[in-house]
Each structure stands twice: as C-alpha cells, then as structure tokens.
Amino acid sequence: MTKSELIARLAERNPHLYQRDVERIVTTIFDEIAAALAQGDRVELRGFGAFSVKQRDARQGRNPRTGEQVSVQGKVIPFFKTGKQLRELLNGDDEE
Predict the structure, then answer these.
(1) What are phi and psi of 44, to 5 degrees?
(2) Are residue 63 and residue 96 in the same domain, yes or no?
(3) Region 42-59: what's the mean pLDDT?
(4) Neighbours of 22 (CB within 10 A)
C-alpha cells in the first residue's frame, strides 16, 4: 500500500473528513515519526510496533568489482520491530 492509497482508504472510511485533511493528518504523523527518529528517539505504536534507530559502526569493506579495500563510514539506520498483536495477526495466532 502506498501513502496515496492509505489516504484514499482513510478518506473513504471517514466521509465526514475532506481528503485534503486526511492527507494533512497522515503527512503530519509520518513527519513526526521521522523527526523523532532524527533526534534519536524511539516511537512506539502499541499493538503495531516500534520504530527506533541503530548505529552501524565504521568498517572496512571491499569493492566487489576490484576486490580493493574501501572504508565504509558509520551510519544510523532506521529499525522497526513488530508488536505482539501485529505478529499474531500476520501468523494467524487466534488463541487469545
């Protein structure tokens, strides 16, 4: 599902809201998640999952074409861990 498909589906399910307002809401939520991650914060959406950032250390890599060693700088990457309810939904665990 793309962002525009999400906006269209939410607008469909909430006919009392204008599509431009739904678009603004979705964009604001994504922007706030991105801003929190940029500050190094963790964002948890109960039942869905948690977004966080992980630090990758600098290392020595190899150029696959030449085999020459290259220096790879450290970086911060986004990480998502699914919540229990989402994992159960995906795996069909209906035992609760």
Answers:
(1) -115, 130
(2) yes
(3) 95
(4) 19
DSSP-based three-state secondary structure for 60: strand
Mean pLDDT of the 68-92 span? 94
Q: How far apart are CA 52 and CA 82, in angstroms?
A: 11
pLDDT tens profile 11-28 = 999 999 999 999 999 999
Asked whether the beta carbons of 88 and 96 are under 8 A apart, the reply is yes
Same domain, 80 and 70: yes
Instruction: Identify whether residues 6 and 36 lie together within a single domain.
Output: yes
Q: How many domains does the chain have?
A: 2
CA angle, residues 78, 87, 83, in degrees to nearest 5:
50
Residue 33 · residue 43 · CB < 8 Å: yes
By the 8 A CB rule, do 51 and 39 touch?
Answer: no
If we measure between CA atoms, which residue out of 53, 52, 71 comes closest to residue 62?
71
Distance CA 14, CA 24 (A): 14
